[in-house]
């Protein structure tokens, strides 16, 4: 059973794992802490590690490489947010053994069927005491929900995003932006967490959007696509799309090894995915301002969302409002 102190350290590794979220390629963003209890009942942190931005080395390797074997004793605990990997060659579980760690506390088992319980079983077979967080204490699977969904369901996590005015229009015929600058910055943080961003052909041709992540100091290579039923003039890869065959869409995305997709425009594409249930979450950014110059086809009936989703978060963001819903 985990102590309160163990749970506090698990909270720390889960919070640390957020730091590189969206920057670790196909690997999830994991964090690791090495804590020594020999001379302090509250523990002293000897080292920490995060999954490298290239995806490798893993968090455990980065943490273990910072400590010498003589610093490890029988009262040293390794805390990690995801089960250490185990493979025939070099791997995190074997590195833990080689360093002499005798106690490991894990927030979550790895949902990847090629890894699931293999790391834990290997550690136990070598005399390591392994403790797992309970379902309610396992925050890591929510932090890395895109990775979890892909491993469990073998399909990408799809987020539908739409910016609307106070009176529910998604497009302003006078100015380009619907929401304020701070909210647009927030949306780039959402882009950061996704592997790909997709817009419909009309939005691409009318707005010529920059489908990238523009956060200072962040080098995020998000993959842009355009949905089109017919070939259009575009520098971006195109996906031929038919809502009557959503499985084909998933198949195409899977071929690109994409775990998470942000559908960001326009309202016709948004409605198509929403009505057909082809999504996991919806993010609505609603401005505090009205739009007086628009067209009826750009207006969102929010009942479409309320009838298909459950609201899981709502917050005032500067002068705008951000609502998040999940598919039910």
A few lines on this structure:
The chain is an alpha/beta fold. The protein contains eleven helices and 13 strands. The strands form two sheets. An eight-stranded mixed sheet has the order 9-8-7-10-6-11-13-12, sandwiched between helices.
Amino- and carboxy-terminal Cα gap: 34 Å
Return the CATH architecture of the largest domain. Answer: 3-Layer(aba) Sandwich
Protein structure class: alpha/beta
Order of helices and strands: HEEHEHEHEHHEHEHEEHEHEHEE
Reading side by side through the largest sheet, how are the strands ordered? Answer: 9-8-7-10-6-11-13-12
Radius of gyration: 23 Å
Instruction: Characterize the main sheet.
Output: 8 strands, mixed
- Which quaternary structure do these chains form? single chain
CATH class descriptor of the largest domain: Alpha Beta
User: What characteristic shape results from the CA principal axes?
Assistant: elongated
Name the CATH superfamily classification of the largest domain. Dihydrofolate Reductase, subunit A
Fill in the CATH topology of the largest domain: Dihydrofolate Reductase, subunit A
How many domain regions?
A: 2
Portion in helices: 25-40%
The proportion of strand residues reads 15-25%
Low-confidence stretches: none
| Mean pLDDT across residues | 92
Total helices: the number is 11
Number of strands: 13
